[in-house]
Structure formats: C-alpha cells, structure tokens
Automatic annotation (TrEMBL):
Pfam families: CarboxypepD_reg, OMP_b-brl_3, Plug. It comes from Mucilaginibacter lutimaris. It is found in: Cell outer membrane. Its main location: membrane. This is Outer membrane beta-barrel protein. Residues 148-221 form the TonB-dependent receptor plug domain. Residues 1-22 form the signal peptide.
Length: 814
C-alpha cells in the first residue's frame, strides 16, 4: 500500500517540476460584444469558426462586461460569430493567429431584430436555468421567485437538486452534495450548512453551478458538487449590497444582510454579515405495528417541536496584489447559531386495538453551534505561457453544546397516572478540528493543459454523550447510553488532470489517488478505552469527459467517473440517542464509505435543450436501517452499508418561449433504480421508478412588474427500505424594480398549496411503520434588496482551500 502511494506521489512531484519548463505554441483570443447602444451584450454566445470551412472550433459565453476569451487556440485563420436572443447574428472580420501571440479582436456590434423585440429585451438576459453537458447553471438574478430568497430555498426549487425535510442538499440520488462557495469549502453540513444557506441571500449570488461529478482536481465527491459563486465586477472602487426580508407562516421569519467590497491597485478588502431570525414548527407522526405471540400492538407517536433560531453568518478577507502575477490572501468566515427547541412527544400504546397506556415526553433543548474557518492562500503565474501555482492552508473548528432535560409522565388507559415521572438528562458537547494543506500546479501544453496537485487533511473529533435518570434529586449516568468517542482521520491525495482540444473534440480526463487512515476510540463510563474503527484504504478515482461538436446546433458529451462518499463524522459516533422509551437511534462506528461509478451520455441542441442518459452503480450504499425487538417492542435505527444500487435514467431540460412576455423552463428526470441488500440485511431485491418534473414559468408585465410560478412534482418511489408517496410544491412570486433599477421589492409565497411533506412507510422483515413528516414550508415573504456604489468593482479573488470534503462532513450531531 505504501509503495502505491509513494509511486503516485513521486509521479505527481516529478510532473510538478518537469512541466515547469514545458513550452507551448497556443494563443488566446479575446474581445468584446456590444449592443447597438454600446452596452455590454452579456449572455451572448461567441463561436470561433475555422476558415475556410466555417467548422466550429469552440464557443464561449459573454460576461457581464461584454468580454469573452478563448484559450489554447492553435495557429490558423479564423472568424468570430456572435449571437444573442432578440438580436441579429454578427460576424467579425477574418484574422490569423500566430503561434505564441495573443489576439484582441475588434468589438462586435449586435443589432436588435426589430422594435418589438427591443422593447421586450428582458428575454435576452441570462435565463434562470442554463444546462450544459454535465453541468446545470442557476442564475438567481433572473428569477422572480428566487428574488429575496435564501440560497437554500433557491436550491430547493432547482431542477437536479434535492433538499429533504432535514435540509440536506443532494445532487446524485440522496447522497450529501459537496458544497463550495467561490470554489472554497463552506465548512458546514447539517444545521450549520442549512443556517449558512438560509442566511445567504440569492441577490448576492452571480450563479450556482450544479455538477454531477467534477474533474480529478476536486475531491472525489460521489454525491455531486454545488459551487455557489458570488457576483464579481471589473474596476477599482467601492460597492455593496443590502437586503432585508420579513416573512410569516405560522410564526415569524426575518433576515437582513450587508456586503461590502473595496478594491485598489494594491489590495482588495471584502466583508459581509447577515442575521437570520426564524421560528418554525415540525410535526412527525409514526404508527409502528408489532405482531408478536398472538398480540398485535400499535405504538403511535406524535412528535411536535417548535424551533427558534438566531443565525449569524460572516465573511471577511483581503487580497494583496504583490505584483501583477502574484496574489496573497487571507480569509476568515463562519457561522454562529443559537437554537432553542421545545419538544412534545406523545406515545399511545394499543394492544389488539384497545388503548393500553400513554407516555408523554416533554423537553427543552438549549443548543449552540459555531463554525469558524481560517484560510491563507497564495496564487502566482510562473511565466507568460500561463503556468501557475496555487498553495493554501486552512484550519476549521466546529463546536457544539446541547443541553436537554426530559420529563416523562405515564398514564393508563383511563388517563390516570400509574407511576412517578421519569426525569432524564441528555448532555452532548462536540468538538471537531480540521487542518488541511493544498498545492497545485497548472501547466499549459501545445494543445491543452496539465493540472496536478497534492492535498493533506487531518481531522480530530471529540464527542461526549452523558445520559441518565435523576435519582433522589441527582442526575446519574446510564452506562448503556453514555459514551465518550474520540475519532481522528488522515487523508492524503494526489491528482493529475489533462485537458485538450482536438478539432471538434474536447477532452478532460484525470486520475486521483486518495489514501485514508482513520481510527475511533470509545471510552465507557468507567474510563476503559477500546478501538472501534481502524480503517486504512487506498482508492484510485479516474474521470473522463469527451465533448464532440457536430455542428453549431448539436453537441455530444460522454462522461465517465468514479467517486466516494465518506460517512459524516457524527454518523460514526457509537451513541444511543433517546427518542422515547421504545424508540432509539444509534451511530455506527463500523460504517464504511460508499462508491459511485457513473457513465453519462448527453446531447445538447442549440445550446439550450440537453438530453442525458446515465447509468450508475453504487456499492456500499448507505441508508437508515430499522431493527426491532418484538418481545421488548423496542425499535432501533442506524445508518448501515445496506447493499448495492443500480440506477438507469434519462434527463431532459429545455426552455420554451410561448410569447414575448411568457417564457418557461422544464426539467424531467426519469429513472429506474434497483436495490439489492447484502446478505446480513435480508433478501431485499426491489426495483422502483422515480420521475421528477420541475417547471418555472416567467411572466413580464407592464410597469416594470414581473411574476414567476415554479413547482416540482415527484412520483411515488422506493428508497433504501422506505416507500415514499408522491410529493411536490408550488411557489409564486411577483416583483418590481425600484430606485432607478438599483433596488428591487418582491412578494413571494412558498408552498402555496401546502403540499410539501414526506409520507413514507416501511414494511421490511419484522418492521412495519407509517411515517408523516411535515414542516412549516408554506410561508409568505416581503423582500427588499439594494445595490450601491460602483457596481463593476471586482469581488474578492477565488480561494480554493482544498478541504471541501472534510468540511462538508463536519456535522455536529443533531
């Protein structure tokens, strides 16, 4: 094993030095595209054509300033074609490219097709949803429903993304997605990540990129990648944004935030802060049937909770421009969440249809979670050929304290108390620390580019669960439940990634190697330690994407990738969590990673309609598994590596323009999945269909008003050992630009028909449970946002900190 790792590191280091002296003969072509009134033609498409046959070489989208750029262009004769919805096509004059010399093309001017289209030029702006082979781009500024909404709500509405009732974000199936902001880790999962995404306003975001799988440069994330990119500008100066939102469902909601950016020739300083206040309800109803020894018992639970939260999110950093080719940056960011949770759990026990007894468990939870991240980064260009180096170091710290005191009262079938109350304590502090370092080199070649890099990550967790009853007025420790769990993990990684262009073909392929060494130690109440999770493993993760441009309207892509989803640190804790006296949840210290193997073929028509076929095999697939002791009637659930999952699917995403004032986007994802359990978990071998339809309708109205209707529907489907019933939601919003188009006010209603809820059942082995999970999704918001200062100021430089996966797994227990 060490030999393999050594070979991989030697090859990578050799490449790091040897390619520092490689030569390149490719050039770059840059320029601008403007409308006839000399405004930037953002969202236009520029196509580079060969002469004399006019074959397509490559294409690019025009940025907000009207600029575009083509890299790695071979010597030859070319012409540029610019297109934009609502405008006539425009060509540049022909020109020649000489090896090693860059070309700046003359500005290309677009003319409106006619007066009517000019008056409704809003349709020529960026669409809300853009689909590319292997990538979906969400532009929040183009959405009415997204206006004033948090990033989490925008993701919940987006095709190809799933946000479940626990606010877990996923792309491929239901595996946790890797979340990044400006190419750097969020350092959060679970409630921490949800709080950050809820407090981040969509009108501060330029776009969100959703990828089924990344190149070898990224962590081998089997659950997909979501990269949230802040808005950027181009000139020296100061600018900022302010937003505020007030909402109501059954309880109040509110948020406000401000972001500032100041740029000079020598440095750039940026900062943002947001505060979110939220009070919401959650209801979960379960009906569990136990058939044992001629007695049919029903354990019907009604769980009601009210959660009050106050979330602070902050970001501060600076970039120093040491020279035209060197940047040094420092960044600190994080969240602080204060939560107060009131729980009311009522358990009714029936025997043969007759009420036997009732147990009422009431508690109040005081829970605070903080996550702070510090990053130091350095970027430099090594020479004029484009070789560059990136290095950074990141330290992340997550802390959680949670104090809960539970009062259980007992009543017989007539409502009379039959025993004294049972008082319990549940104290569970957690500390997680992560140190990581990342080094990468990018080296242009004659027809492409070679990227290579090294990464090291070290994580420690300290989890202490103290649980027990009050006896004679003093809380004691129950050794069955209480445990002190220590866990550490070391991950070393190296990668090589090669991109190239060969005529009508584009290739992006690479190989990533990751070595993992982790160990868990459990300390019981007596202080005796024993190791529970010694895991050492090495994996190779190849990726390959091949694009073929058949002509200017048809493009094909083939994507092959292998990925891994490691369990969250909290899921490895061997703790027994109390739900009620007959229902417990447990961590699993023996939980192993799951592996994903994906092949996908896609076709893009007219740069708009994308059709994809995919096949994926997941081994070691992780799902919640429910066990039950029929004699004691106790249920225990834990995540396990249940088995293998085979998925075959088709996805179609297309925009439709009905009129000049009504446009829409449709996304249809249909798949067939087969679940096959490993022998120790029974004889599960079940196939299921799953169809998800997402639609967005946008309406442009007189007087500067606009409206949007968006919704999603998912058919009944099977997942793990749970059968889910159909589910969906519909959102409606209306907005108007104000203050010389620098401000916007909107009114948005979420889940207006109150359809968003999980209804599931489990009927496997001796477990029979029906579940209804409802949250406060139906809400109405009034939102205001305002941009001030010089709106073309550059935002902070992108910082890739390199510990994306570890930070996404740093999820304190709930």
């Amino acid at each position: 094993m060490r030999f393999k790792i050594g070979c991989l590191i030697i090859v990578t280091l050799s490449g790091l030095f040897s390619f520092c002296y490689a030569q390149t003969g490719s050039s770059t072509i840059s320029g601008t595209v403007l409308t006839q009134n000399n405004q930037p033609a953002d969202a236009a498409t520029v196509i580079l054509l060969n002469l004399p046959d006019s074959s397509v070489v490559m294409s690019a989208l025009v940025g907000a300033t009207g600029s575009f750029r083509f890299s790695y262009v071979n010597p030859g004769s070319y012409i540029l074609l610019a297109t934009r919805l609502g405008f006539k096509k425009a060509y540049s004059t022909s020109f020649k490219v000489t090896a090693g010399l860059d070309v700046t093309a003359a500005p290309i001017i677009l003319s409106a097709l006619n007066k009517e289209l000019k008056e409704v030029a809003i349709v020529a702006k960026k669409p809300y949803i853009e689909v590319r082979p292997g990538k979906l781009i969400i532009n929040p500024s183009a959405s009415i429903v997204a206006d004033g909404q948090s990033v989490l709500e925008i993701l919940r509405q987006s095709p190809g993304v799933r946000v479940d009732n626990n606010d877990i974000v996923s792309v491929n199936g239901r595996q946790d997605a890797l979340i990044m902001i400006d190419g750097k880790p969020t350092n959060l999962t679970g409630p921490d990540l949800a709080a950050l995404l809820k407090s981040t306003q969509g009108n501060n975001i330029d776009r969100m990129e959703v990828l089924k799988g990344g190149s070898a440069k990224y962590d081998a994330a089997g659950g997909g990648i979501i990269n949230i990119i802040y808005k950027k500008g181009t000139n020296i100066g100061t600018n900022g944004t302010f937003n505020a939102s007030a909402g109501y469902g059954k309880y109040y909601k509110g948020s406000t935030g401000i972001g500032l950016n100041h740029r000079t020739k020598a440095y750039n300083v940026f900062a943002s802060y947001s505060l979110a206040l939220n009070k919401q309800w959650k209801d979960v109803y379960t009906d569990r049937t136990v058939d044992y020894a001629g007695l049919v018992s029903n354990y019907n639970t009604t769980y009601k909770s009210i959660i009050q939260s106050r979330s602070h999110a902050f970001r501060f950093g600076t970039d120093f421009f040491l020279s035209p080719i060197q940047n040094l940056g420092f960044l600190v960011y994080g969240t602080v969440n204060n939560n107060n949770i009131g729980k009311d759990n009522t358990l009714h026990i029936y025997n043969n249809g007759n009420l036997d007894s009732t147990i009422l468990a009431r508690s109040t939870v005081d829970r605070d979670i903080s996550n702070i991240n510090y990053n130091l980064n350095y970027n430099a260009k090594l020479d004029k050929t484009g070789r560059s180096i990136t290095a950074n170091a990141t330290y992340s710290r997550a802390k959680r304290h949670s104090d809960e005191y539970i009062t259980n009262t007992f009543a017989d079938e007539n409502g009379f108390t039959y025993r004294d109350p049972l008082l319990l304590q549940n104290i569970s502090p957690t500390k997680i620390n992560n140190w990581s370092g990342f080094l990468a080199l990018s080296n242009p070649l004659t027809n492409g580019k070679l990227d290579m890099g090294l990464k090291y990550s070290y994580t420690t967790t300290d989890n202490n669960l103290v649980f027990g009853p009050q006896i004679n007025g003093i809380y004691t420790v129950n050794t069955t439940f209480s445990n002190h769990f220590l866990f550490n993990e070391k991950i070393g990684a190296a990668y090589l990634n090669y991109t190239a262009k060969f005529g009508k073909f584009d290739f992006d392929g690479g190989l990533r190697g990751e070595y993992t060494n982790n160990k868990g130690t459990s300390l019981n109440a007596a202080g005796v330690a024993y190791d529970v999770t010694p895991h050492k493993y090495f994996n190779l993760f190849p990726t390959a994407i091949l694009n073929y441009r058949y002509n200017d309207k048809n493009e094909f892509a083939l994507n092959l990738s292998r990925g891994i989803t490691r369990p969250g640190y909290d899921k490895l804790n061997p703790f027994l969590y109390f739900v009620d006296l007959y229902n417990y949840q447990s961590g699993n210290p023996y939980l192993k990673p799951e592996y994903h193997n994906l092949i996908q073929l896609s076709h893009t028509y007219n740069s708009e309609t994308v059709t994809s076929l995919r096949a994926e095999i997941t081994t070691g697939a992780t799902f919640p598994f429910y066990g039950q002791d029929d004699a004691s009637k106790i249920s225990l659930s834990a995540d396990v590596n249940l088995g293998r999952v085979y998925t075959y699917g088709i996805n179609i995403n297309t925009p439709v323009k009905f009129t000049g004032w009504w446009t829409s986007n449709y996304d249809i994802d249909a798949s067939y999945q087969r679940y096959i359990a490993y022998a120790q978990y029974g004889n599960l071998n079940k196939g299921t269909a799953d169809v998800i339809v997402t639609s967005t309708q946008t309406f442009t109205m007189p007087g500067g008003f606009a409206a949007q209707l968006s919704g999603r529907f998912e058919t009944a489907t099977f997942y793990g050992i749970k059968q889910f019933r159909p589910a969906g939601f519909m959102d409606l919003g209306i907005s108007k630009q104000i203050l010389n188009k620098m401000g916007r006010i909107s009114l948005v209603g979420n889940d207006i028909f109150k359809l968003n809820r999980d209804r599931a059942s489990i009927n496997y082995q001796n477990v029979n449970i029906n579940i209804l999970d409802r949250r406060e999704y139906r809400k109405i918001y009034l939102n205001f946002s305002y941009r001030f200062g010089k709106t073309t100021v550059k935002s902070s430089a992108t910082h890739v900190t390199g510990n994306e996966e570890e930070q996404n797994r740093m999820k304190p227990p709930q």
